[in-house]
Amino acid sequence: MESVDSAFKNVDRAPDIPVYAIMVAYSEDPSPVKLNLGIGVYRQDDGKPHILNVVRKAEKLLLDDNSMTKEYLPITGFPQFNQLSAELVFGADSPAIIENRVTTVQCLSGSGSLRIGAEFLAKHHHQHIVYLSQPTYANHPNFFLAAGHALRSYRYYDPTTRGLDFKGLLEDIGEAPLGAIVLFQSCSHNPTGIDPTLEQWEKIRQLIRLKGLLPFFDCAYQGFVSGNLNTDAQSIQMFVADGGECLVAQSYSKIMGIYGERVGALSIVCKTSDIASRVESQLKLVIRPMYSNPPIHGAAIVTTILKDRLMFAEWTAELKAMIDRICKLRQQLYDALCDRGTPGDWRHIVRQVGMYSFGGLNEDQVRFMKKEYHIYMSADGRINMAGLGIKTIPHLANAIHASLTLH
């Protein structure tokens, strides 16, 4: 190879990021029957991302509002967006909000919120050990490793039952050192689609407080399990009700279908209002050298919807319809597999909740389905149920059946 005089000649080629490699492979596949069940996007029956009617209305209102400008936002973002986001997840009557013990900053979706939270904790928390569920969202480790934290895991998924390993979860968290950070997904666990019950959450809360651990919630799917925003936030609210501290990263990507707008928030619940104020001052110093201040358009969409009673009601109705449709798709896929006599127990498909179904497929079977049926999904077999439609369920069922009987 010819020598190249470049400052970057010793840079190694990094491996492709799996979920985005799947997107590229899918887009380049000319097959008319190809199916994308990889990245978590809610799609219509035609496979295109679904845009909520209320989001279109909000954008039109913003377009016609001559008072809207493109001025820089504050470092912490749009103040009304932050207030409404905190109220959405904690409840408007939350004592933590009323007592000004919550500081909320607008961030770049859930990923940006987690990254800012990880950086803040690296600078200002005495313990740098973070516990993640096994398995967890593929990007979770990156947020904390980039900030210099050490990672450990707690058992979560039981492959035998395709359900929650609650005993293992409690044992592993119970062995965590004082002050360790424990990352939870508040609902619609990615990738497993398995959530603790409220009774189990209460036992987890008691253990966390007994051991002096710091809970950090990834709240990317509020409303995406039950269709009720408050119900899906109860896991977080019980940790706030006891007066203890926690962090919450919110995302509006899934629940408002505004993936590319990158809208999210990080809230930190503190013991006192004075501590919350000091925490916010330090969050500004974390954000400033990263991106200085967040973008305005997506936050304006969310704020327009959240502050208007009628638009809020329209949004929640659309959200509930999306969840009801996913539940029907789960049942239809389960029925289709049963009708084909597909080997194995597929009841986990209807027992699991939220956007994903997990379990029953290994990497070889996923590879077979991609090659023979042009179906694209994560190598671990995670299925984005929201990527399915009535017409594509038979195709997926045929592929799963073939992967287990012919491969």
Short description:
The chain has 407 residues and is of the alpha/beta class. Helix content is 45%, strand content 14%.
Give the helix/strand layout.
Layout: H1 18-28, E1 35-36, H2 53-64, H3 79-90, H4 95-98, E2 102-108, H5 109-124, E3 129-134, H6 140-146, E4 150-155, E5 157-158, E6 163-164, H7 166-174, E7 181-185, H8 198-211, E8 214-219, H9 234-241, E9 246-251, H10 253-256, E10 263-269, H11 273-287, H12 297-307, H13 309-339, H14 348-351, E11 356-357, H15 363-373, E12 375-376, E13 383-384, H16 393-405
Parallel strand pairs: 1-12, 3-4, 3-7, 7-8, 8-9
Antiparallel strand pairs: 2-10, 5-6, 9-10, 11-13
Shape annotation: globular
| Strand order in the sheet with the most strands | 2-10-9-8-7-3-4
- Structural classification: alpha/beta
The separation of the N and C termini measures 42 Å
Task: Report the uncertain regions.
Answer: none
Helix content: 40-55%
Number of helices: 16
For the residues shown, what is the average pLDDT?
95
Question: What is the chain-wise order of helices and strands?
Answer: HEHHHEHEHEEEHEHEHEHEHHHHEHEEH
What's the alpha carbon Rg, rounded to whole Å? 22 Å
The percent range for strand residues is: 5-15%
Overall strand count: 13
Biggest beta sheet summary? 7 strands, mixed
General description of the model:
Helix content is 45%, strand content 14%. The chain is built from 16 helices and 13 strands. Strands 2-10-9-8-7-3-4 form a seven-stranded mixed beta sheet, sandwiched between helices. It has a two-stranded parallel ribbon with strand order 1-12. A two-stranded antiparallel sheet has the order 5-6. β5 and β6 form a beta hairpin. The radius of gyration is 22 Å and the shape is globular.
